[in-house]
Write a structure and sequence with these properties.
Blueprint lengths: L10 H10 L3 H16 L5 H99 L5 H34 L5 E4 H18 L3 E6 L5 E4 L1 H17 L6 E9 L2 E7 L7 H4 L23 H11 L3 E6 L5 E8 L6
Parallel strand pairs: 2-4
Antiparallel strand pairs: 1-3, 4-5, 5-7, 6-7
């Protein structure tokens, strides 16, 4: 018969076995508690455990609070550093902006001076050109029948060259003053049909010099609506002069005016060579070189159609072109009858 002896473990033995199961970090936190528990043998085991847990929780809270404080301080320092960087960049941007404003002011001053010089030159050139035309007309009148056909043709061509130069000068003036004129746009009621007929009459001599016939048609006896007379005249000047300029001799140019209820519709069609595909996208841009050249050796500054687009859009209208290669081009302009006054 075997004899078994039951040995009851002491309190210290139980505590040490419990601690060995804990991770090193928890052991570190509980170590002060263990030391304290060893000194207080008079307390019950349950009370010691509760006290140990309370002290451990307190240490954890203190540790977490300390870590949060350090993290907050670190974050605050990082934000302060970033703020200093932003302030430095802001100062640099402000300095660069001031320099940009100074440069912009210099450029505006230079541009204003350049525009003033261009305006003076182009304006002063108009007078001698007009005098040349008047002298050519006097020669034609005085010469009468004594001038042979060749001399008559030379005078007619001379007048046309001068008129062509005047058109270029006018476009240069327009491109310079349009922006200023926009501020003082003058909307008034006028007879569009009468206005366009005046432009057609003005271009009859030019068309006749190239043996081109201008045909005007309208679906109404008269057509009035509110628009700017100067803008409308410059639009028709450029469209009609372009149609004649790029038409071969002995062709026709058609100008059609239509009243379409709430819109005014204008068409200018020629029988020229049409607009090449590579030119169609840049048709209304400034200073473009086009494949087709004027058929009578006329000059072109590449501003006419860009001016047309600017003026049409200023009147809340739209402009576009359609073409058939070798069969001419048609330019369409539409204006709403109700124009918002500015």
């Amino acid at each position: 018969m075997s004899t078994f002896s039951i040995i009851k473990p002491s309190k210290n033995t139980f505590k040490l076995s419990f601690i060995k199961k804990l991770s090193p970090i928890i052991l570190l936190l509980f170590w002060p508690t263990i030391l304290y528990a060893q000194e207080v043998d008079s307390r019950s085991e349950v009370e010691n455990i509760v006290l140990n847990i309370g002290i451990a929780v307190l240490f954890v809270l203190v540790f977490l609070t300390l870590m949060a404080f350090l993290q907050k301080r670190k974050t605050s320092q990082k934000l302060e550093d970033q703020n200093e960087v932003i302030k430095s960049q802001t100062r640099e941007l402000s300095k660069a902006n001031q320099e940009f404003l100074k440069q912009n002011l210099r450029l505006e001053t230079i541009l204003h001076e350049k525009n003033s010089i261009v305006g003076i030159i182009t304006h002063d050139l108009k007078m001698p050109f007009n005098r040349i035309i008047s002298l050519a007309e006097l020669v034609q009148l005085d010469g009468g029948e004594t001038l042979n056909p060749n001399q008559q043709e030379y005078l007619a061509r001379m007048k046309q060259v001068v008129q062509d130069g005047l058109a270029v000068i006018q476009n240069l003036l327009d491109s310079r003053v349009i922006e200023d004129y926009k501020k003082d746009i003058n909307i008034e009621r006028l007879d569009v049909k009468e206005n366009i007929l005046e432009v057609v009459k003005r271009y009859q001599p030019y068309a006749s010099s190239k043996r081109i016939q201008i045909i005007f048609k309208s679906n109404v006896p008269e057509l009035e609506f509110r628009t700017d007379a100067f803008f409308l005249n410059r639009i028709m000047d450029n469209l009609l002069s372009n149609a004649i300029k790029f038409s071969p001799p002995e062709r026709k140019v058609y100008v059609n005016l239509k009243d379409e209820r709430e819109k005014v519709h204008i068409e200018v069609r020629d029988e020229g060579y049409g607009i090449p595909e590579e030119d169609q996208e840049k048709l209304f841009l400034k200073h473009q070189n086009f494949t087709n050249k004027p058929t009578g050796g006329e000059s072109s500054a590449g501003l006419g159609l860009s001016i047309v687009k600017t003026l049409v859009e200023e009147l809340n209208g739209k402009v576009w072109a359609e073409t058939n290669r070798g069969k001419g081009a048609t330019f369409y302009v539409e204006f709403p009858k109700i124009i918002i006054e500015r």
